[in-house]
Each structure stands twice: as C-alpha cells, then as structure tokens.
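Need residues for this backbone.
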C-alpha cells in the first residue's frame, strides 16, 4: 500500500493542463524580459505543491516562491532543483539548512540580518532577497538608514549574496489604483536608495501582472492566476485572457433514503421536510474544508443543482435529491456536470470570503488526483504516506 491509493469516495482533481496554459498565457502576455516566479506556498493553494511546481516550470516559470523553509524543503524532496525563494520570515538559526538546500531567504530587518551573521558560524554562503515595505505593513524595511546599513553589512560579508529586492502591493486587485500608485512610487524611491541593484527586482503579483505589465520590473510572482482563479471579482473584466480553473472536487452518494413530510435532518434538527422526498448522504464535511456555512448551498448530482439540507457534519452532509438516484452516483462540489458549473468563486461568495481561502481550506485528508491530457498521471494521499 502507498500514497497512490485511497479508500474514500471523495477526491480533488487537478487538471495540470490548466496550470500549464495559465502560466504559458501569462508568459506570452508579459514583456519578453520578465520572468515568472510561480507561487506554490500552502501546498500550491491547496492544489499540490510538487506537481504544480513541476508543471509551472515546464510551462516557462524560472523560479518558485513559498512561505517558509519547510515548504521549500518539501519541493526539494520532490526532486525540484529550480530556484526557490522563501517569502516569509525565517528563523536566523535555520539559515544553514536553507543554504544546504540552496533556498533563498528574505531579509526584512537589520536585526534579522545581524542574528543571521551571529548564527552562521561556518560563514555558509547564503542567497537573500531584500523585502521593502512600501505600504503593506507586513514585512520589510521602511527607512533609508536601515536599508543603507543592511547594504553595508552585505558588502562586508561576501558569503551573503543579495540576489533580489521586492515589495508587495496591498490593493493591486482593486479598481481604485490610488494606493497602488502610492506604493509603486514608494518602491521607485526606495530603489533609488540602492546604488547597486541586484539582478532580480519584483513587485508584481498576478493582479499587477495582468493590469500593469509595464510596472513589474523583471519578475512576476504568479499565484492565484496560475490556478485559473481571478485575483478579485472587481477586476474580473480586466483580465487579458481567459483563466482556466484547475481544481474540481467530487464525491459520491453513499446512501439514499426516502423521508416523509415532517422528518428532520442532521444536527440541531434545523431542516424539516416540507414534503416526502429523497435524500442522499455525501461523505464530505467540515473536516475536509466544506464548512458548515455552506448549508443550503448546492452541489451537482446527475447534472442538476441539489441543495445541501441540514447542518454539514464533520465528515458528511445530506442533499435533497430530485428523484431516487443510485448509490455511487457522482457528486460535484466544485466543477462541471453536463451544462452546469460551480466555480471556486461561487463557493467563496457563499462563504463571504475569497477564492484563495476556499482552495487552501481543502484538507490534506482529501486525496488529490492529477491529470494531464485528461488522463490520471499521479494520485497523492498524504494519509497513507507512512504505509
């Protein structure tokens, strides 16, 4: 037994052809000198880090970005040798392990750099990107004096290579561009504080790349767009090409029963049948990322929208069926059946959240099936990884 098997009737499908096309289309759209850094943090936004990373690199990405060192090491263990940048804060005591795996880290303060030098007893070569805080207020240097001190420290320590400098926009996906413009001007000003600029300068996420390709310098960090989801509904009409949603989520009916008018369903008895009806049980719950707030929304069964009735349980929910359907009938939570389609955005709207959160919330216990040319090329089930 290994992680290519699973023994439940719920799974995620990732169409890697969509990932490939989304990266390829962005590469075609951007100016020729601009590279793509594929953002595969959070298990590639819930899609599968190694598989997505390999596909993005095949499609033309030249580097990868993650949130912390563990995610970078996971990619290395998956056989990926491409450049990887950790965007978040790393512990200064962990620089040796980053250097050992050829992982670039982010400098975000002089204090952090001092601690790195103090802990780097063997003077291990280390590649770094400098984070500038232009208005996101998260990580990064804001003051000219601190920046100049950092640059001087780097000059005095040849084991440190400054490979890049970057910032992040807070409102690139909003129609009103005033704050974006302010951050961009801040970035230009701060770059002037650097007499010798590193080879990589990047400020653009997906939204910036789509809307302001002339302002991304020489790298775009392609995240949400790579997965075929719009950065925000506000700019959906401003996208330069059609995005292809890569993820779909499916299950099956495991039990079908007839209930009579007046019977109640699930915890709290919040649903009461208004007539005799057929009810199906689906083995998905909030432990899988299908949250209780999705009660009364719909899934696709036999090509029809079917309402979730009663509270969603940890591992199961119930649906109102249009008629008696056989056990093992396919249920689509996100994706297409016949002429109907449920998008990630549809689910996000129901949850009053963003599409990022929906896919990132799909639990590790839901197996991922990876497709190329409509054929299964890999199955990953983390629950069975130790067997």
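Answer:
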């Amino acid at each position: 037994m290994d992680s290519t098997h699973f023994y439940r009737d719920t799974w995620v499908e990732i169409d890697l052809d969509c990932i490939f096309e989304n990266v390829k289309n962005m590469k075609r759209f951007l100016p020729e000198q601009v590279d793509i850094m594929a953002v595969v943090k959070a298990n590639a936004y819930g899609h599968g880090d190694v598989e997505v990373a390999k596909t993005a690199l095949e499609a033309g990405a030249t580097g990868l970005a993650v949130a912390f060192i563990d995610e970078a090491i996971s990619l290395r263990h998956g056989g990926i040798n491409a450049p990887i940048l950790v965007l978040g804060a790393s512990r200064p005591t962990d620089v040796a392990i980053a250097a050992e795996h050829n992982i670039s880290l982010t400098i975000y303060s002089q204090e952090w750099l001092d601690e790195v030098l103090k802990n780097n007893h063997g003077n291990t070569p280390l590649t770094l990107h400098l984070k500038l805080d232009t208005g996101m207020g998260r990580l990064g240097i804001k003051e000219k004096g601190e920046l100049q001190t950092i640059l001087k420290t780097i000059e005095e320590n040849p084991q440190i290579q400054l490979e890049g400098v970057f910032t992040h926009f807070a409102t690139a996906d909003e129609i009103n561009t005033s704050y974006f413009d302010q951050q961009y001007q801040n970035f230009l000003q701060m770059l002037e504080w650097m007499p010798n600029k590193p080879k990589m300068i990047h400020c653009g996420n997906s939204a910036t790349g789509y809307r302001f390709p002339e302002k991304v310098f020489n790298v775009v960090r392609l995240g949400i767009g790579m997965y075929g989801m719009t950065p925000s509904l506000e700019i959906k009409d401003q996208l330069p090409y059609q995005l292809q949603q890569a993820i779909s989520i499916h299950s099956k009916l495991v039990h079908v029963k007839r209930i009579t008018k007046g019977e109640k369903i699930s915890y709290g008895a919040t649903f009461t049948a208004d007539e005799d009806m057929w009810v199906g049980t689906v083995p998905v719950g909030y432990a899988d990322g299908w949250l209780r707030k999705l009660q009364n929304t719909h899934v696709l069964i036999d090509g029809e929208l079917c309402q979730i009735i009663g509270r969603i349980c940890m591992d199961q929910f119930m649906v109102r069926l249009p008629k008696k359907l056989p056990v093992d009938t396919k249920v689509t939570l996100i994706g297409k059946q016949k002429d109907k389609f449920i998008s990630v955005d549809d689910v996000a709207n129901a949850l009053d959240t963003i599409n990022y959160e929906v896919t990132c919330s799909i639990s590790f216990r839901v197996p991922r099936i990876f497709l190329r040319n409509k054929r299964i090329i890999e199955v990953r089930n983390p629950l069975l990884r130790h067997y």
